[in-house]
Amino acid sequence: MNSFPENDIKPPKPSTIRRRDLANPSALGFGGFAATLMALSLSGMGFRGVTNQSVFIANLCFLAGIGLLISSQWEMVKGNTFGYTVLAAFGLYYGGYGVLILPSMGILESYQGRTAEYHNAFGIYQLVWCILNLFFFIASLPTGGPNIFIYGALELSYIFNCIAHFVRAEGNVATSTSLMKVAGAFGFISSLAGFYMLGHELCQEILPFRIPVYNTSRLIDSRKSSDQDS
């Protein structure tokens, strides 16, 4: 039988575990995404006469492919479903795109050159990403202005890229080239918005001026509130 009064019995204090603050994974995600997309977009516009994208395989498979996948895992740890989903998806997309244009894979040769079937297949590939990115664009609406620009401009880039390949499959090379340049221009705009977000995530505390993200979540919240009131 315990001889101590009941009020004197105190449970042991749980050991305090100090958790270090996690680094911000968004900076690597935005940087890898923007740098890779800008290079692809410039070649799509024919900047400096570059049309062969083989040299960008390094960015596609490593900076974007591996870098975005690493960032996505830490976004998951932070509980950011949107960040995890888009970073993982684009990391795998860019890595896969790098594999598609890798000469040793022989994918282009399997179509016996740039035939109509190849361009139709690539157009379908881009069309599916138009659909997937549309969901990303909708999900970005409450996140902020630059994010909306990223996925909105990227959606237009996918659409024009898709049409360009379908037109090329029909044999209209000149129109396809023009549409590809338009797709590259929208991709370039998307990459600029990505670099803007990189500046916000990485340099905000260093710069003497603010890099606002124009949070749009209040617009969505106010709309929900008005719908509930009605």
What does this structure look like?
Keywords: Membrane, Transmembrane, Transmembrane helix. GO terms for molecular function: acetate transmembrane transporter activity. It is a multi-pass membrane protein. With 230 residues, the chain is mainly α. It has helices at residues 26-44, 57-77, 81-100, 107-110, 116-140, 145-169, 173-203, 217-229. The protein has one domain (24-212). Helix 1 (26-44) packs parallel to helix 3 and helix 6 packs antiparallel against helix 7 (173-203). The chain is globular and about 55 Å long.
Helix count, DSSP H or I runs of 4 or more residues: 8
Tally of discrete structural domains: 1
Let me know the largest β-sheet.
none
Q: Which value, in Å, is the CA radius of gyration?
A: 24 Å
Q: Please indicate the percent range of residues in DSSP E strands (runs of 2 or more).
A: under 5%
Poorly predicted regions are 1-12, 14-18
Please identify the structural class as seen in this structure: mainly alpha
Family: Belongs to the acetate uptake transporter (AceTr) (TC 2.A.96) family.
Main location: membrane
Pfam families: Gpr1_Fun34_YaaH (PF01184)
GO cellular component, one term: plasma membrane
